[in-house]
Amino acid sequence: MTKVHIVVDSIAQCPPELFAQHENLYKVPLRVALGDTEWREDEISTTELFRREKETGLPIKTSQPSPGDWLQVLQPILDAGDEVVLITVSGGLSGTVQGARSAAAMLAKDRIFVVDSGTASIGEAYLVDVALKMADDGVGAREIAEHLAARAAATHTFLVPDTLEYLHKGGRIGGAAALFGSILQIRPVVYLVDGKVAVLDKVRTKQRAIKRMLAEVAKYDAFEYIGVGHIDAPEEGQALLEEVKLLFPGVPLKTADVGAVVGAHLGPGLVGIIFQERM
After folding, report:
1. Contacts of 86 (CB under 8 A, 6+ apart)
2. What is the pLDDT of residues 12-51, one digit of tens each?
3. 258 dihedral zone (left: phi>0; alpha: psi -120 to 50; beta)
């Protein structure tokens, strides 16, 4: 009987115990680097990464999985005659999904089904949970991938960065905007549209930006879940979680620390909400 395996990139930040519980779940790493020193994403925390960045003065660089990284995971599954559902971070944020599709085309595109999550972190990890349950229930890879794509389309991501420095480094805002935004305490509320970062609003002070983000979430009627994440800001993340509990009672909640790769592009102190509309 053909078995369905789930492959996910490291940006999902799936916990180690999930891999221990599911022998059909695999992770392919992205990497971060400072100068000549490179780590797999799961080898360094955001706290340690930003500490080293400050000490060295070197810019943080990130890289997507190499063709060999994909091959190492996918080839044994295909050799066993099985199928793969491969879930990646949004294609608007990283080239990871293109690398995954290229690997699928080279190896066995009829047995590897690539899903662009349209998001990252909690949203991506939620799709992994759904895929694992469907695979356990005997659903085929193609049907799982189609279902996940529908869930991805119903997933929304809103973020409030603490600093504009990293958005500027990534080319998402200009230098003048970053300078005057910092001086005037302007905080953008950003969101993902078609998987790419866009500015929803610009608000004076971070707390007002968080209130604006929550007001936007409240425009939706029903939720499968709401996820609260942060980058090296546990206290603010917990405070946001408590607000979400009060505003959306009864909605399943998920929490996560955002990993080093996304952290490198958005910076420390970010808080965000990822949720899926009820289908």
Report:
1. 6, 7, 8, 74, 100, 104, 112, 113, 114, 115
2. 999 999 999 999 999 999 999 999 999 999 999 999 999 9
3. beta
pTM (predicted TM-score) = 0.93
Spatial distance between the Cα atoms of 279 and 34, rounded to a whole number of angstroms = 42
Domain range list for the chain:
4-30+65-152, 155-277
Distance from the Cα of residue 200 to its chain's centroid: 19
CATH C-level class of 155-277: alpha beta
In a 10 Å sphere around its CB, with 0-12 CB exposed, 13-18 middle and 19+ buried, how is residue 42 labelled? middle
Query: Residue 105: is it exposed, middle or buried by C-beta count within 10 angstroms (0-12/13-18/19+)?
Result: exposed
- 3-class SS of residue 19: helix
Q: In the prediction, which pLDDT does 175 show?
A: 40
In the CATH hierarchy, which top-level class contains the domain 4-30+65-152?
alpha beta
Q: What pLDDT does 112 receive?
A: 97
The count of residues in the chain is 279
